[in-house]
Design a protein that fits this description.
Largest sheet of chain A: 4 strands, mixed
Radius of gyration of chain A: 28 Å
Radius of gyration of chain B: 28 Å
Largest interface: A-B, 110 and 117 residues
Strand content of chain A: 5-15%
Structural class of chain B: alpha/beta
Number of strands of chain A: 5
Structural class of chain A: alpha/beta
Oligomer: heterodimer
Distance between the termini of chain B: 33 Å
Helix content of chain B: 55-70%
Strand content of chain B: 5-15%
Order of helices and strands of chain A: HHHEHEHEHEHEHHHHHHHH
Helix content of chain A: 55-70%
Number of helices of chain B: 14
Chain lengths: 373, 377
C-alpha cells in the first residue's frame, strides 16, 4: 500500500513538472498533432504536377495526340513549349522544368513507315527518385499509346512481342500515402516520448533536485516507475490520436483490431521510455541528454524503413536494424493497418521490443544510483 | 583605449567563455563531428532508394523456349533474385508471407499466343504496400522485357517492337544513383542540427540558470553577446559541413560540380539563418526543455519533411508548399543539390541565397530585439 502511495506521489510530481509551465504543456500536445497533419501531406512518393516542357519538331496529328496524353495526366503540368534544342539546357539547368519531352521531325514519318519512332525524354536527375518515378509514368503513357496505335490500325504488329501486365496487391493504385501515414504516428510519438523522458532525470540533475529525490524514501525502482509513467501515458495518447487521424483524416484503411494496435504501441512506448531514461541517467546536463537522444533518434529514423526500404540495405546493416525499436513498430503498424495483422502475426515485432525494454529499464534504474556527480 | 580595442577585448572575453563551455561539455563537439560521420556512413553504405536483388517468384506454366528465355532474362538481371516456383497458388502464398516482393507469371498459352497472335502477356504482380518500391520493381520488369526484345532483334528474329520508343536521358545523374541525391541533402540536416538545436539550448541554458543576467551586468553589449554566441557555433557548423562534403566526395564518390567558394558562401548564409532561428527560439522561451521541443518541431522535422530532402515538395498540396517557404532548409537543399550535381547555376542559386539572406537578417534581428526587450520588461 505504501509502495502504491509513493508511486502515486512521484507520478503526480512528474505530471506537475510537465504541466505547470504552459509552454511545456503546449509543446507535448499541439505541435505533434500539427506535424502529423503537415507531414502526412508532405511525405509522399507520388508525383503530382511535374512541370514539363514540350519541344515538338514534328507538329503532326500523331505527335499532338501523344502530347495530349501528357496534358490529360494529373501527374504532369505543362510549363512552356520551346522551339529550339538550345533551350533544353536552359530549362533544365535553371529548374524551369523538370523534364523536357522532345519529339523529332521524323516522328510521324517513322510511325507510318513502320520504323520505330522515338520520343526523347530529358529529366533533371538532381532528385534521382523523382526522375525515375516520372520516367515510369511516361513509360506507362507511351505503352498505352502504342497499344492504341495497334488497336486503331495505325501500325500493325508485324512480329511476336510481349506486353507487361502489371498488378499490385494490397494497394492497387500504389498510393504511397497509406504506407507513410500508417507509420508516421510511431515516428512522431517516439520523438515526443524520447524528449520528454530523456530530459526528465537530466533536468533534475542540472538543478540539483535529483539528489533530493535520491535521499527521499524512494528506492530506484520506484523512481523509475514514477519517471516512466507520464512518458508512457503521453506517448500512448499521442500515438492513438495519430492512428485515429490516419484513419479518419487521411482515409488510411484500418484492417486490424484496436486491441492489437494498443498492445503494439504499448510495447513500443515502453521500450522508448526505457531508452529515454537510460540516456537521461547517463547525462549530467539537459544538453547532453538532448544530444544523446538525437544520437539515438537520427540513425533509428533513417534505419527504420520509414522512408527508404530496409530490403535495399546491405545484409549486415539489415541485421543491425533488428535492434532498432522504431523498425519493429513501423513494420507492425503497417501490418496492422494495411494487412489486418493479428497479435500472432506481429509477434516477431513485439518480442524484440519487450526484450529491449527488459534490458533498458532496469539498466536505467541502476544508473540512477550509480552515476552521480 | 579606442572603442575598437574595447570591442576586441569584450569579444575575446566572451569567445573564451563560449569556447571553454563547448570544450568542457564534449557533447556539442560530438554533435558537430561524430553525428555527421555516423550519419554519412549510414547513408553512404546503407541507405538507398535503389532496389537490388529484389526477391521475386517466377512461375512458368509454359515450358516453351520463349518462356524459358524470358525467365532466364529475369535470372540474369542484377535487380532481381529469382525463385522458381511451380504453381501460382504457391507463389501467392510466398507473396502473402513477404518471402518475395513480386511474382512473374507466364501463362500456359504464352508461346502459342506469342506466335499465333503476335502478342503474349507477361503478368507481373507486386506487393503494393510500399508503393515506391512497387513502382521501381515494375520499372525493372519493364526493362528486363525490353532487353529481351532487343536481344531478339539483334539476333535478326522478326520482333514487334513498340511503335514509339522512349529514349531517356537523366541529366546530372545518368545512372540515377540515389546516394548522390541523398548525401547532399544530409549535409543540410547536419547543419540544421548544429545551427538550431545546439544554439537554442546553449542560450536557453543561460537564462534558465540565471547566468544571462550575470553576463548582462558586465560591460558586454547585446551585440557582443549575440556575436560571441554565434561565432563558435558558426565555426562548428561550418566544420561539420566541410567534413561531410569531404567524406561524401572522397569516400562515397558523390560528384561535386560547383565551386568551393560558392559552397562556403551559401552554406554560411544557411548557417546564419539557422543560428538566428535557434537564438530566436531560446530568447523567446528561455526554458531548455521547451527550447528543445520547439527546435525539433520547428527546426529539425521540417528540415527532414518539408525541404525536398527525401520527399518531393512540388507534389505536395499548395498549403504545404506555402508552409515550406519559411523553412530555411528548403532553400539550402535546392542549393546543395544544384552545387553537387549541376554546378554553379546562378539563376537557381541566387534566389535561394536571397531567401536565406532575408531569413538570416530577420531571425537575427528578431533575436536581438527579443533579448533586449526581455531585459527591460
Amino acid at each position: 500500500m505504501d509502495f502504491v502511495r509513493r508511486i502515486i506521489a512521484l507520478t503526480i510530481k512528474e505530471f506537475i513538472m510537465i504541466m505547470k509551465d504552459p509552454k511545456s504543456r503546449f509543446v507535448i500536445i499541439g505541435p505533434p498533432l500539427f506535424q502529423f497533419f503537415v507531414f502526412g501531406y508532405a511525405a509522399t512518393y507520388d508525383l503530382k504536377n511535374v512541370r514539363y516542357t514540350v519541344f515538338d519538331e514534328s507538329r503532326t496529328a500523331e505527335s499532338r495526340q501523344l502530347l495530349s496524353r501528357f496534358e490529360g495526366s494529373e501527374n504532369f503540368e505543362l510549363t512552356k513549349t520551346i522551339l529550339s534544342e538550345k533551350e533544353i539546357a536552359f530549362m533544365i539547368d535553371r529548374e524551369k522544368a523538370r523534364l523536357v519531352v522532345h519529339i523529332g521531325p521524323e516522328f510521324s514519318r517513322d510511325l507510318h513507315n513502320g520504323r520505330p519512332a522515338t520520343l526523347q525524354v530529358i529529366v533533371d536527375g538532381r532528385n534521382s527518385n523523382v526522375a525515375l518515378i516520372a520516367l515510369g509514368y511516361i513509360g506507362r503513357i507511351v505503352e498505352q499509346y502504342n497499344q492504341d496505335l495497334v488497336k486503331n490500325g495505325v501500325v500493325s504488329m508485324d512480329g511476336p512481342g510481349v506486353v507487361l501486365v502489371d498488378r499490385s496487391w494490397f494497394n492497387a493504385n500504389l498510393q504511397s500515402r497509406w504506407f507513410i501515414v500508417s507509420a508516421l504516428g510511431g515516428l512522431i510519438s517516439m520523438v515526443v516520448v524520447m524528449i520528454l523522458t530523456s530530459l526528465s532525470v537530466a533536468r533534475e540533475r542540472e538543478f540539483g533536485t535529483f539528489d533530493q529525490l535520491l535521499v527521499a524514501p524512494f528506492n530506484p525502482g520506484e523512481i523509475l516507475i514514477g519517471k516512466s509513467l507520464p512518458g508512457m501515458l503521453f506517448g500512448i495518447t499521442d500515438a492513438l490520436l495519430f492512428a485515429a487521424g490516419a484513419v479518419y483524416w487521411f482515409g488510411v484503411p484500418f484492417r486490424g483490431t484496436v486491441p492489437t494496435l494498443v498492445l503494439a504501441l504499448g510495447c513500443f512506448i515502453i521500450t522508448i521510455v526505457g531508452v529515454g531514461l537510460l540516456v537521461s541517467s547517463l547525462s549530467m546536463t539537459m544538453q547532453q541528454a538532448l544530444l544523446g537522444s538525437f544520437v539515438f533518434m537520427m540513425p533509428s529514423v533513417i534505419l527504420s524503413g520509414f522512408a527508404t526500404p530496409i530490403e535495399n540495405m546491405p545484409h549486415w546493416l539489415q541485421i543491425g536494424t533488428l535492434i532498432n525499436p522504431l523498425r519493429h513498430i513501423i513494420t507492425a503498424l503497417r501490418d496492422i493497418f494495411l494487412e489486418g495483422a493479428s497479435v500472432s502475426m506481429i509477434w516477431h515485432q513485439l518480442w524484440p521490443l519487450v526484450l529491449m525494454a527488459c534490458f533498458t529499464l532496469p539498466l536505467a534504474g541502476w544508473m540512477f544510483r550509480h552515476r552521480s556527480q | 583605449m579606442t572603442p575598437r580595442t574595447l570591442f576586441f577585448m569584450r569579444m575575446r572575453g566572451i569567445l573564451r567563455k563560449e569556447v571553454l563551455q563547448i570544450l568542457r561539455d564534449p557533447s556539442s563537439i560530438a554533435l558537430a563531428i561524430v553525428l555527421p560521420l555516423v550519419l554519412l556512413f549510414i547513408f553512404g553504405y546503407g541507405v538507398t532508394l535503389d532496389a537490388e536483388n529484389v526477391p521475386i517468384a517466377v512461375v512458368l506454366d509454359d515450358n516453351g523456349p520463349a518462356a524459358r528465355e524470358v525467365s532466364a532474362r529475369f535470372d540474369l538481371s542484377p535487380y532481381f533474385k529469382t525463385i522458381h516456383l511451380t504453381s501460382m497458388a504457391e507463389a501467392t502464398e510466398w507473396l502473402n508471407q513477404r518471402r518475395v516482393d513480386g511474382i512473374v507469371h507466364l501463362q500456359a498459352d504464352f508461346s502459342s499466343s506469342l506466335y499465333k497472335r503476335n502478342q503474349a502477356p507477361v503478368q507481373v504482380i507486386v506487393n503494393g504496400i510500399d508503393a515506391n518500391r512497387a513502382r521501381l520493381i515494375q520499372g525493372y520488369a519493364r526493362g528486363v522485357l525490353q532487353t529481351w526484345t532487343e536481344l531478339r532483334q539483334a539476333r535478326g528474329e522478326p520482333v514487334a517492337g513498340p511503335a514509339v520508343k522512349i529514349s531517356q536521358r537523366i541529366w546530372f545523374n545518368e545512372a540515377a544513383v540515389s546516394r548522390d541525391f541523398l548525401v547532399p541533402g544530409l549535409i543540410t540536416l547536419i547543419m540544421t542540427l548544429i545551427g538550431i538545436l545546439l544554439t537554442a539550448l546553449v542560450v536557453a541554458r543561460e537564462w534558465e540558470r540565471g547566468t544571462m543576467e550575470a553576463i548582462l551586468v558586465t560591460p558586454i553589449r547585446r551585440v557582443d553577446l549575440l556575436l560571441g554566441k554565434m561565432l563558435p557555433y558558426f565555426i562548428l557548423g561550418m566544420l561539420g559541413m566541410r567534413l561531410s562534403v569531404w567524406v561524401g566526395v572522397t569516400l562515397f564518390h558523390v560528384p561535386f560540380r560547383g565551386s568551393i567558394t560558392a559552397l562556403f558562401v551559401l552554406s554560411a548564409l544557411f548557417m546564419l539563418a539557422s543560428l538566428g532561428f535557434g537564438l530566436l527560439i531560446s530568447a523567446a522561451v528561455r526554458v531548455q526543455f521547451v527550447a528543445a521541443q520547439i527546435s525539433i518541431v520547428a527546426g529539425f522535422l521540417p528540415a527532414l519533411f518539408l525541404s525536398g530532402l527525401i520527399f518531393d515538395l512540388e507534389s505536395t498540396p499548395r498549403f504545404i508548399q506555402i508552409v515550406s517557404r519559411v523553412v530555411p532548409a528548403r532553400y539550402f537543399v535546392d542549393i546543395s543539390h544544384t552545387l553537387f550535381m549541376a554546378g554553379d547555376v546562378w539563376p537557381v542559386l541566387l534566389p535561394n541565397a536571397l531567401a536565406l539572406a532575408v531569413m538570416a537578417v530577420l531571425f537575427i534581428s528578431l533575436a536581438f530585439r527579443k533579448i533586449t526587450k526581455r531585459l527591460e520588461g
